[in-house]
Give the backbone structure.
Amino acid sequence: MVDTAHAAVDVIDTVSQSVRHLAVGAAPVSIAVDSATGRAYAANAADGTVSIIDGTSNAVTATIPVGARPYSIAANALTGMVYVSHTFSDKTTVFDGATHAVTQLATGSIDLIAIDTAADTVYLLAYEGGNLTVLEGPQHAIRKAAAGKHAWGMALNEATHTLYVARVGTGDVIALQGTSSSIFRAGHTPCAVAVNPRTNTIYVANYADGSVTVLDAGLDAGTGRAAATIRVGEHPQALAVDAQRNLVYVANTFSNTVTIIDGESRKAVATLPAGKAPYALAVDPGSSRLYVANGAGDRHFTIVDTTLP
């Protein structure tokens, strides 16, 4: 977990809950993990670098210059390639996690990154631009897709090779599969989306009305219906899915809480304290622990026990 203010990454032992503070570059803002190699990559916004962390020793093994203001980062576990977006730039950096060879791609301005590893396809989303840039294959052939303006969150279901993009401006979610697309209505100001690949269910956090919209992937997009709408806390901003337990976690940023949704009943079953201004979530799959990034207060993360009665 990045600690931007202290130029560090916190490495949490999920068994002992001990925390190791690892010094990285200046102002780390995002982190990605290559599940095949165990390497972690921290994007350091203030010095234009990426710190490479060995997952066994928890030591920084290299620092790679990538260009000014790196923002989002993602790793392809199948190819070992790492992708970095940059604030106020029309370039996306790509580097090999093993050789550290760096390439700059002219992709246009990019904010978020999602990778379909099996298809070797990378999705690059600009918040405001209206277009989704798609990189295909080892040569990174570029094509454009219409995602719609004011797109603030996306999630990929690798089982179906479908990308879901939440669009603030139109209050809906667009589902993109190859060159086909469908549109589903959500709530007010949908800002985040998450997928349970086991149940093929999509969850959308609606920032303005304190709710989560539940969509079935098989739903007829033409009806504009939702399978369920669940009330949560104030200004929900992030979602995480525990597919093993069929639970969904919602970060309620203004309520300082996390809501737990049961995926089977489609009801909120608990609301738990989560530190001040929770804005990002990570799940330890199958366990009862949830890791919450906090945007305010004297600590920058909270560990929440999500054990249900």
In short: The first strand starts at residue 2 and ends at 3.
